[in-house]
Amino acid sequence: MGYFAVKGGAEAIQNSLELMDFYRIKNATTVLEIDQIVSQLRVAVGKVMSEGSLYSEEYAAIAIKQAEGDLLEAAFIIRAFRTTLERRFVSEPLNTREMFIKRKISASFREIPGGQILGPSMDYSQRILDVKKAIETKADLDRLLESFSGKIDASKLTNISHHEKVIDLLNKEGLIQKANEEENRALVDITREAIRFPAPRSARLQMMSRAETGSLMSMGYSSMRGFGSVHPTVGELRYGTVPVKIKDPRGRIRHIGAVEMTEAEMITGTKKSNKEGAALFSIGYGLCFGQNDTKVICMGILDTTLRNPDTSMPANDQEFVLYHSEGIEAMGFTNHLKLPHYVTFQSSLKNVKAAIERKNKP
Amino acid sequence: MIEDKKYETQYRFAFIDEATKKEIRRKLLKAIAVPGYQVPYSSPEMPIARGWGTGGLHVTLAIIGPTDIFKIIDQGSDASVNACNLRNFVQTMTGVETTLDTQKATIIQTRHRITEEALSTHQIFVYQVPQPEPLRSVERYENKTRQMHAEADYAKMWVSLYEQYVRHGDIMMGAGYPVKVNGRYIMAPSPIPKWDVPNLNNSKAIHLFGAGREKRLYAVPPFTKVEPLEFEDIKFHIEDFKGTACFRTGNTKAFLDELYYDDGSKHFVINDSNYLDKLVQKENPIQHNNHYLNQLDNEA
């Protein structure tokens, strides 16, 4: 009986939630510990912090556990939690040149200052299912750790230095296009003010840094494949920890910790006729929390496309890219179709029935 | 001894942080001051999915006080799953009294319906809005629609209505019929059926609209002119139930749901659950009074 089935929504929700918990634990396996998620699902935690727009490895891990591994859902939980937090400080601008580098590669030059450092990367892992992971034991892990620390040469650890970036080399040679003087350089905060269009670059980069990885990827890919014009070279891709500093009430700069970030500088040739000046290189920038090469590379592509607005190409269309790569909003709205729509449907039903009647009238 | 309270969840009154609530209230004041104008706002994430009533929640949580009495409906029903979920959330985060009684509520949050029962001056009606931009169907770009509103350039909208008439013999807009507010802005009344649209006109209550995903707030202040878009010769009309009666009350003057039973039989029942309950219990609820409903009386 349709009418009565709608009643009792509250009870249905309660039962559904209980079932969710039951399905999570029904096989009575060992409890999934939060520190296990933080350390063994490091990349997932990074993704949730990036899309959730809150840097907390622990809370991201809790959200991953709560969402049974659905990372977008976990990012959503983190975003909602973020709403309850008061903003007590605004950090000094992050200087990614101070990054403690764990990975640094360039596709533009064979050798770069400081060398190519592959660091931890899945790129050459040969995606062969490693069935031995199924029988890994604590003793195995201890052995691996021990053998790893045995390989560290303490005498080489003392010199941490910062290296010039690839873009510095190009800049010195005058190869990089200066930013357009007319470009809107206002610093807005998209978490405090709804984005307005045309959006300044600061808003675009903020939106993309929080965007859903897969969505950015598909739009970045579309630009390279033929539905756009940007096919860049990786100038430099860096992953590491960046120090965060705030100003205390007495005006002193205080170091409050470090965040894991991935950064990409993507080089594209600018399309200019000789009349407008020489065709120099332009830089597309990508930055996000955690280790996520795909996201920053695609963000770098889209940074470039969005600086060249063109509504004939989806990836060059600000409103298209920014509205539709916002994963939390896209997921919510596509799923809202599950909500009852019988009033709205009745309304269009009446229109259609009336149209049929008009048609059938002699 | 310092107690470790890290894992005790404690949220402030009405969940959202105070600075953001203040921001939302300021934007609401602006919305009231410029009826029908869409005010951009921060729209912080809620623990409810985008598209599931976050805009309505922002409004409710920003304006609610401990003495308010809260009612929420979804598709006209107090018992709908999403309404239950949001009621539970608001109640947990504020501790306010909740009610199913339209008369008793001071704040009524809704998705896709205005209550069948008339509203009064002590009430605030909060709409969950999926698409705040009435011009979106004729212009996809936000920066263009904002400009069109600024210049009151609604030609595309009128042409669209005209084309619908030429193609189908009527304006085919169903729920969310566009209206002109205070003689100035064209506004999306949220997907309420046409049946409800006339009840926005000159209403005693405050009507606040929250579109969370699209990050826009707008309002219809009390006693404000709200006119559905229509031509001199092609008039707006409400849904025609052709005298069909509610199978539980025999009432022919209310928005009806169409029900299909297991045996294949079709029944019609009053959509507004509280209005239906009151009629069944012979409490004589007072319906909105508008020209279109009066016409039904005259025809009967």
Spatial extent as radius of gyration of chain B:
20 Å
**Poorly predicted ranges of chain B (pLDDT <50, ≥5 residues)?**
none
- What is the CATH first-level class name of chain B? Alpha Beta
**How many helices of chain B does DSSP assign?**
7
The strand line-up of the biggest sheet of chain B is 1-9-8-5-4-2-3
Strand proportion of chain B, as a percent range, falls in 15-25%
DSSP summary: helix tally of chain A: 14
What portion of residues of chain A is helical? 40-55%
Give the name of the CATH superfamily of chain B.
Bacterial phosphonate metabolism protein PhnH
* Radius of gyration of chain A using CA atoms only: 25 Å
Q: Pairing-aware structural class of the strands and helices of chain A? A: alpha+beta
Q: Based on the coordinates given, report the CATH architecture of chain B.
A: 3-Layer(aba) Sandwich
In total, the number of domains of chain A comes to 2
Structural class of chain B: alpha/beta
Oligomer: heterodimer
Molecular structure report:
- The complex is a heterodimer of chains A (362) and B (300).
- Chain A has helices spanning 2-6, 9-25, 34-40, 42-52, 57-66, 71-83, 138-150, 166-172, 201-210, 213-225, 293-306, 318-324, 327-335, 342-360; strands at residues 100-105, 233-247, 253-269, 281-289.
- By secondary structure, chain A is an alpha+beta fold.
- Chain A has 2 domains: 9-83, no CATH class; 96-152 and 160-333, no CATH class.
- The longest helix of chain A has 19 residues, at 342-360.
- Residues 1-6 of chain A have low confidence and may be disordered.
- Chain B is an alpha/beta fold.
- A 7-stranded mixed beta sheet of chain B has the order 1-9-8-5-4-2-3. In chain B, strands 7-6-10 form a 3-stranded antiparallel beta sheet, with no helix packed on it.
- The termini of chain B are far apart.
- At the A-B interface, helix 1, helix 2, helix 6, helix 13 and helix 14 of A face helix 1, helix 3, helix 4 and strand 11 of B.
